[in-house]
From TrEMBL:
This is Fe2OG dioxygenase domain-containing protein. It comes from Parasitella parasitica. The gene is PARPA_08097.1 scaffold 31862. Gene3D superfamilies: q2cbj1_9rhob like domain. The keyword Metal-binding applies. Keywords: Dioxygenase, Iron, Metal-binding, Oxidoreductase, Vitamin C.
Length: 318
């Protein structure tokens, strides 16, 4: 391997990281002499020689995330998916020349250095209000399905974690009610055009992406519907890994939202956030026109109980 410049080597696959994390019982490994020259020249360490019967335990998503976070901060891992470090002074001095279609340099830097940012003013009011109306119509037509009924047999995430009802837009494919996929109505079509165009292009210019996107419209009912603390993906720096979501962007569609309506997103700070104690929270209101952008594998978030009908379109990019 010596002298190889293969870029792949600077990334570790998520599976590798989980396996390394799982190999906590070092007593199973052979004793290596401190001085490696003592090893017989033909010594080859083959882990399989030392493996005992594999014990597969089901562990929860939050346990797995906790282990991974102990191994390396999720933010540091995911930052390796960016083409540049955005928090250096040299990079920021040049921020005036960044060629973004819609993001500001500040939003890009926040996304890089703390894992999330909020942006506003990207879509016309007419489109946003139109999409809100379309969401109401989809609700009237009975197109939403409780999210629980999709995750019912997923041992990784507790079905009780969320009270929302969802549907999917899949512009390339036919509507399929059984799968929760509906035809994209015209105003949502325009939001999707924005996402697939300038928005995706800006994200792609700073972060390695395959360009695949999923679109989910979620409804939280006014009887206190919530979604407990979770992360949208496992942190990985492997550009070949298309299982894990990389970017979550939530487009809020709620005109006239005020404090008493609840439904805010609580964002949990990370141990490596500058100046903020671990677990300190930031609150984001789901206001019409606001877009919350997260590194999916990095930021824990929660939706607080909602006391008014709450609609949001979430896009995940891989
Ligand atoms: O609606 C929101 O504010 C975020 C939704 C969310 O966290 C998710 O669907 O994973
Ligand atoms: Fe989420």
């Amino acid at each position: 391997m010596e002298g190889s410049n293969n870029q792949q080597e600077q990334y570790s696959s998520l599976e590798d990281r989980i396996l390394r994390m799982a190999a906590t019982d070092v007593s199973d490994l052979p004793d290596f002499p401190d001085d490696k020259s003592d090893l017989p020249s033909d010594f080859e360490y083959n882990p399989e020689d030392y493996q005992e019967e594999e014990v597969v335990e089901e562990i929860s998503e939050s346990e797995l995330l906790k282990y991974l976070d102990q191994q390396e901060s999720a933010l540091s891992v995911v930052q390796r998916l960016f083409y540049h470090e955005l928090n250096t002074s040299g990079y920021q001095r040049n921020s005036g020349s960044w060629n973004f279609d819609c993001l500001t340099p500040q939003a890009a830097e926040e996304l890089y250095s703390r894992g999330w940012t909020e942006i506003e003013g990207q879509l016309d009011l007419e489109i946003l209000r139109g999409a809100h109306e379309e969401a109401l119509q989809l609700m009237e037509q009975g197109q939403f399905t409780p999210a629980k009924s999709f995750s019912g047999n997923d041992p990784f995430r507790d079905a009780a974690a969320r009270d929302d009802s969802i549907l999917w837009f899949d512009p390339g494919n036919q509507a399929n009610h059984g799968m929760g996929i509906v035809d994209t109505p015209p105003y949502f079509e325009r939001i999707l055009e924005f996402i697939q165009g300038p928005f995706m292009s800006d994200i792609k210019s700073m972060l390695r992406l395959n360009g695949r996107a999923e679109y989910q419209l979620a409804y939280f009912h006014p009887g206190g519907a919530r979604y407990e603390r979770h992360r949208d993906a496992l942190p990985t720096d492997d550009p070949q890994d298309t299982n894990q979501r990389r970017i979550s962007a939530v487009f809020y569609l709620n005109p006239g939202w005020v404090t008493g309506h609840g439904g805010e997103v609580k964002i949990y700070s990370r141990p490596d956030d500058h100046g903020l104690p671990e677990g300190a929270e930031r609150i984001v209101k789901p206001l019409l026109g606001r877009i919350l952008v997260l590194l999916s594998g990095v930021v824990d978030h929660e939706i607080l109980p909602s006391y008014k009908d709450r609609y949001a379109l979430t896009v995940w990019m891989r």
